[in-house]
Amino acid sequence: MNMSRTEALNQIITFGEFRGSAFSQLLQFGFDTEIEHFKVTKTMLADVLNKYLSDVISADDLDEWANFIECRDDIDYSLIEGYVYALANPELMGDISKHKIMKMLQMLNSPSL
After folding, report:
1. Could you tell me which of 54, 50, 48, 58 has the C-alpha nearest to residue 12?
2. H or E stretch at 38
3. CB-based contact 69:84 (threshold 8 Å)
4. pLDDT averaged over the chain?
5. 8 in a domain, yes or no?
6. N or C terminus of the chain with fewer C-beta within 10 Å?
């Protein structure tokens, strides 16, 4: 199955059905910073956090997910930057737990002040 860069990033970020093959598909694209950025939304983050709370993915998966997003130049995660930073650096916020992820979801879903 051939995927575009955007399709591959979407599969990886959303833990899609073809996530495994998306990583290898992504290898065929260079690290061109002049391309259109894939935007990670608050809804995508909420879906991933809910997958963790539902035991679809593990704390390690969540940590790796956040680190993947942080290291890519072709991903715009400005809407959720603080959340990604916290997930990618569990040693700073304490280990990832269901309680902390529920609090994160509450913050994410609360209206901005």
Report:
1. 48
2. strand 38-39
3. yes
4. 90
5. no
6. C
DSSP structural state of residue 18: T
- What is the total count of domains within the chain? 1
Range of the domain at 62: 36-108
- Per DSSP, the three-state class of 39 is strand
Per-residue pLDDT tens over the stretch 21-41? 999 998 888 766 567 789 999
Which tokens is 40 given? 């990670």
Asked, for residue 59, whether it belongs to a domain, the answer is yes
Give a yes or no: residue 50 inside a domain. Answer: yes
- Pick the closest to residue 10 from 50, 41, 51 (CA basis): 41
What pTM was estimated for this model as a whole? 0.89
Domain presence at residue 60: yes
Report the alpha-carbon distance of residue 101 to residue 87 in Å, rounded.
Answer: 9
Residue 38, phi then psi, degrees to nearest 5: -85, 125
With a cut of 50, say whether residue 54 has pLDDT above it: yes
Q: Which two tokens stand for residue 15?
A: 């833990």
Q: Is residue 33 within 8 Å of 5, Cβ to Cβ?
A: no
